[in-house]
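Here is one such protein, fold included:

. . .
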Amino acid sequence: MTVKSVLSATVASIAVASSAIAADKAQVEFWHAMGGELGQMVDTFASDFNAGSDSCQINATYKGNYTENMTASIAAFRAGQQPHITQVFEVGTATMMAAEGKGAVYPVYKLMEDAGIDFDQSAYLPAVISYYTDTDNNLLSLPFNSSTPVLWYNKTALDAAGVAVPTTWDEVEEAARALKANGMTKPFSFGWQSWTNVENFSAWHNLPMATEENGFASLKTEFTFNNDAVVNHIQRIADMGEEGLFVYGGRRGDSRAQFVNGETALWINSSAYYGGFKTDITEFEFGQTMLPLETSVADAPQNSIIGGATLWVLSGHDQPEYTCVAEFFQFLSQPEQQAMWHQNTGYVPITTAAYELSKEQGFYESDPLTDTAIKQLSLNAPTPASKGVRFGSFVQVRDIINEELEAVWAGDKDAKSALDAAVERGNALLRKFEEANG
């Protein structure tokens, strides 16, 4: 028998043995929306946990973007083929809470209690877990990838144009004008426009986006984001577009390439782009800073709110598998895992211990400004207007806001008429949600 044959036979026998060991473990299906390098890190979390467990096997599967994964999970539940864990972005929280009330969700606080695992909510950052607790302050889903929008900037381009990093919207406009005069074709842009320029603009200036504490207090909430402050803000951006200072680049992260290739020097989007930027940006110096302040609305910023997603547990499986889910959640929350995730992605650490570990490891010294997101979220104690948003059918409402804002950027509507229409259309969906879940 040749050496090659012996090696092949050995590898095959190891593979068979590994498969047999995995088959003996409780199988847990985990559906997520993390593609690319983020997906690879999720796979690493699962494989590391599996390697250290004698009884559990986490099978992580990428199911598309946030909307696609949530849609797939709901369809699978209706068919009785649901995963144990599904990753749902923050705008799906109210929908998942309604599902919890109908028995479709296994709340995290009860999961950990039933598994006999010590679970201390106070270990988690208040700005993160407040988004995902019920009225009795019980945590319903596990925070996993939480971020907040920041102002990314091309320092090399700003220096060449002779302008400082802007801190107010007046300064953003002035900087964009100087950048354009210096030859930049798309000085300013952003992504996730409802999240960055309606939801976070409102929270940053302590303005309610809706009644009933932005939907936290009851399902009777009604949108109010067609107020003068938001209307004037959106109209300012539209006027900047007319002057060639702003160029719209798409709904999610579509305009990322504009920033990476140097066409755009000021870009508002998630802090979680940091990991990719470190790899992809080699031609200029970049940085991040806090969101700009509209000084005509507030004298100082309040706090930003999170985006990203949490891990929801779906009901309908056996208890030994749920014990594995609880152990996996405990593993994910450990400071070592969270510090690694935070430092390599730009997502905020979900626990205070992970933040402290990152400081001890010197991360904020070697990678300056990477604590911007954490500072924004914890700038002040959240108010009813800045705690976050919790609206039924908000995935669809965001689509409405996108449509109306795109009409503004295209010059088909002014900001007032577009936001009035978005509020009217959004409120109609809120009433349908209330009727179905009230």
In short: Residues 1-18 have pLDDT under 50 and may be disordered. DSSP finds 20 helices and nine strands in the chain.
